[in-house]
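Reminder to self: tokens first, then the designed residues, so the page reads top to bottom the way the pipeline ran.
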């Protein structure tokens, strides 16, 4: 692992519990933005807006940073991606992993959107497993991290790992694995790969849902997760973990924004094209109807 330590600034979005990151090289002022959020208002006139992304851009400008990359860790089910908005504002390249095509195929079928390319072409670059890249002078590597979704990845950047929906803060445990293409078995192996990193590795999670009124948190270490993560302490073996994770997942509700957000996120953050009346629409798939058509 690269010995250089990036500077990390987290932005917490209370509406979705998401954390967005600016990861920068202090020596060059070059940076990456990881998993930016596009805000959504569920009013009588639903609309998308850019408050969260604009806060990131304001920080970039105030600190004279240069954005190299806009990185997605996976196709998010709980918020809209602002990757395209950030790209258009900064000229940075968007990227995710080659595994995104599997998730695109799953969700384009769910939405019945056969015209959407499922080749990852909505991003400027698709990282292969273990592919190296740089943010300024700091080396990075992509680690394939399936389980939560079939396209989830971890970005190892210097001494920091951006793990998104894999491990939460130790008092919250681990992420769900019941979305289409998800797997508790794969999540267990991904977690083993992450906790095999050096104990001092900084881990940055993608969500926090603060229990018992504590303040939102998003940074831990490999050592802290091994010592304190409630799910890893309760489930010492793969089979115990699978049973714990699948039992808990059966009790969890569908994320509020999932069916809205994913049809934008499979497009890499691009909005659906306007229809004949000039308006854009989001489709909501129905599993069944209670009356005949």
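Designed residues (293 positions):
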């Amino acid at each position: 692992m690269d010995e250089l330590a990036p500077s990390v600034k987290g932005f917490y979005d209370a509406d979705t519990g998401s954390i967005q990151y600016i990861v920068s090289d202090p020596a060059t002022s070059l940076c990456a933005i990881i998993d930016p959020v596009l805000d959504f208002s569920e009013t009588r006139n639903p609309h998308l807006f850019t408050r969260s992304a604009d806060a990131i851009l304001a920080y970039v400008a105030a600190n004279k940073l240069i954005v190299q990359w806009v990185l997605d860790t996976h196709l998010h089910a709980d918020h809209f991606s602002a990757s395209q908005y950030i790209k258009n504002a900064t000229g940075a390249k968007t990227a995710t992993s080659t595994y995104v095509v599997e998730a695109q195929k799953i969700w384009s079928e769910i939405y019945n959107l056969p015209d959407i390319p499922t080749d990852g072409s909505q991003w400027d670059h698709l990282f292969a497993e273990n592919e190296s890249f740089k943010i300024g002078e700091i080396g990075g590597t992509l680690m394939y991290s399936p389980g939560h979704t079939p396209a989830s990845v971890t970005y190892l950047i210097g001494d920091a790992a951006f793990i998104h929906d894999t491990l939460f803060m130790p008092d919250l445990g681990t992420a769900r694995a019941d979305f289409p293409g998800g797997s508790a078995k794969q999540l267990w192996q991904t977690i083993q790969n992450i906790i095999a990193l050096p104990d001092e590795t900084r881990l940055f999670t993608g969500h926090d849902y603060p229990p018992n009124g504590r303040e939102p948190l998003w940074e831990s270490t490999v050592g802290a997760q091994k010592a304190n993560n409630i799910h890893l302490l309760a489930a010492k073996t793969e089979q115990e973990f699978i049973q714990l994770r699948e039992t808990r997942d059966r009790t969890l509700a569908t994320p509020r924004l999932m069916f809205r957000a994913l049809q934008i996120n499979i497009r890499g953050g691009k909005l659906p094209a306007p229809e004949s009346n000039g308006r854009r629409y989001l489709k909501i798939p129905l599993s069944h109807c209670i009356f005949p058509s």
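The mean pLDDT is 94.
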